[in-house]
Structure formats: C-alpha cells, structure tokens
Specification:
Layout: H1 7-10, H2 16-69, H3 75-110, H4 131-134, H5 137-147, H6 149-165, H7 167-182, H8 203-263, H9 269-305
Helix pairs in contact: 2-3, 2-9, 5-8, 6-8, 8-9
C-alpha cells in the first residue's frame, strides 16, 4: 500500500503539526488496509460456509425429488424444498460477489495480488488478553493527548497567555464565568454575555480563554471517542465470545446427539439435514461476529495511535491525502 502512496513518505514535514498531519495520513492508510483485509478474509470465510449451506440444500432437493417421484410426498412439499434451495443459491451468489468485491478492494488498496488470504479470521482473544480494555481510560487519554501536537500547542498557548495576564485578571474572569453558569437555568431566548467593563479586558486574556476552551473541547472529544471505542469493542467481544462458546457448543452437541439418534433410526434424514443446516447458520453468525470484533479492535488500536475515531459501522475508505496540514498557532 505504501508503494501507491509513496508521496506521503517524501513530504518534508518541518513543524510538529506538519509531521502529525503526515503521520495521520500514513496511519489512515494502515487503518484502511487492515480493515479491508479483515473484510476480505471474513467474506471468504462466509462464502465457504454459504457453499456448504447450498450443498446441503442441494442434497435436500435431490432427496425431496425422490420422495415425490415414489409418491411419498406431494408436489407442495417439493415446492417448499425447491424454494429453500433457490434461497440458498441466491445467498451463495451474493456471498460470492461480496468476496470478489472485498478482494478487489484490497487489491486496489495494496496494488498487488501476490498474497493469499487465510480461510478464516482468528477467534477473539479473552478479555484478560486485551490490553486495550485493561489499561485505564484516563491513562489512555493522557497518552493520546501527549502525542497530539495541536493539544500540546494549545497547552503552551494557555500557559504563555495566562502568565502574561496574571492570576488577578484570571480570577476576575473565573468569577464572572461562575456567575453566568449559576444563572444558566434562568436563561430564556436571550443568552447573556460577559460584561467586559467589569474586567480589565485585553487581547492576551481573550487568547488565553480561547486556547483553554479549545484544549478542553479536544480533551472531551478524545475522551468521548475513547469511551465509545472501548464500549463498542467490549460489546462485540461479548457477542463473538457468546456465539463461539455457547451456540457452537450447543449445536455441536446437538449434531452428535442427532447422529446417534439417526444411527439408531430414532430421527429421519430430514431432521439430520435440518440440524446440520442450523449448525452452519450458527457458523455464519460466528464469522460475522468475528468480523465485527476485528474491525472494532482495529479502530480502537488506531485511535490509541492517534487516528480519529469514525465510530462503529463507518465505511472503509482510503486516506485523505489532500487534507490540510493542520492548524498552526
């Protein structure tokens, strides 16, 4: 992928903001590539499962035709099986197209097809193995903001202008702000403003207030993104783990019981096929849950590395190589 975006490596980043802008674009490139890889592997895994589902539907159809031919079944029952077969074939065609599209998107991103996708995504690690959720949120927030040059510049501006303004004027400002906030419940359509005549107002105080407010907004936005990313990762991990640890064991046990009962002629071939199809549907749910987990984990790791958080369900897209170099101060 870097070959297609080599221009990002040749740009001369001088200031910390320019370096951050360049690194952010490289990080976005890495994030997009990883998510496209996850989607391509998951699409391949789901295609393999849909092929097995279609094969089972084909076996059901053949058996139904024989039953109808010898007179054990009526035409209506055969039609029901034919509809199920056509539905399985349609799902297979959709899965095949999705796998092809995902692979082509990955090819367009990387610029090469000299690679081979694994057949399935790995199972999620246990929660105890996810450092992204074990590290305290406040520690993660501090580390992200410490690497953010815009936040660092704002903090320096705040310190610089507040030192010029002095503690007395800052205290006057805080008292007026507290007065406004305490009366906020009584505000109607007209929102009051600060009475500058009561403060020895100057441009340095104005710049200090703006820098402090902007730094606070950035800190709160980053913390909110972290909370969302952590909770989403925890939720999709729980979902994937539940399906893997509960449903898969349940259907595996049911399949073993069905085989034993079938061998003892306690259940019919149709019941055995139905249980196998149910198990394959659960495998499809597992594949989809694993995809959601790995996408969420990729987003979380990118956020911790300094990338913006788009939120769950965001579309995968390439890096914005035409973005601005950042706001300077």
């Amino acid at each position: 992928a870097l070959v297609l975006h080599a221009d990002l490596l040749t740009s001369q980043a001088i200031s910390s903001v320019e370096r951050f802008s360049r690194d952010s674009q490289l990080l976005a490139l890495q994030l997009t590539t990883q998510k496209l890889w996850v989607e391509a592997v998951s699409a391949k895994e789901q295609l393999n499962i849909q092929q097995r589902i279609a094969e089972a539907a084909s076996v059901s159809l053949e058996l139904a035709k024989r039953m109808e031919k010898v007179g054990n079944w009526g035409r209506n029952r055969l039609i029901d099986v034919e509809i199920g077969y056509q539905s399985a074939r349609n799902q297979l065609m959709l899965a095949d197209q999705a796998a092809f599209n995902a692979r082509q998107k990955l090819f367009a991103q990387i610029g090469s097809d000299h690679w081979r996708l694994p057949n399935a995504l790995p199972k999620p690690a246990s929660l105890s193995g996810l450092s992204e959720l074990l590290i305290p949120l406040e520690q993660q927030l501090t580390e992200i903001l410490a690497r953010h040059p815009h936040y660092s510049l704002l903090e320096k501006e705040v310190q610089y202008y507040e030192r010029i303004v002095g503690p007395a004027m800052l205290e006057q400002w805080r008292q007026q702000l507290d007065t406004l906030l305490s009366a906020s419940t009584n505000w109607t359509s007209a929102i009051p403003t600060v009475d500058r005549t009561k403060i020895l107002w100057n441009h340095d105080l104005d710049k200090a207030i703006k820098a402090r407010a902007e730094a606070l907004r950035l800190s709160i936005k980053t913390k909110s993104d972290l909370l969302q990313a952590r909770e989403h990762l925890r939720a999709v991990h729980t979902q994937a783990s539940d399906i893997l640890n509960k449903l898969q064991r349940l259907y595996s046990g049911a399949e073993e019981e069905a085989l034993m009962r079938y061998n003892g002629m306690f259940i019919s071939t149709w019941e055995l096929i139905a249980k196998a199809q149910t198990k394959m549907q659960s495998e499809l749910a597992v594949a989809q849950a694993k995809q959601s987990f790995w996408i969420a984990l990729t987003d979380m790791r990118a956020l911790l590395a300094g990338a913006p958080y788009a939120g769950p369900g965001s579309n995968v897209g390439g890096p914005d190589t035409n973005s601005s170099s950042g706001k300077g101060h």
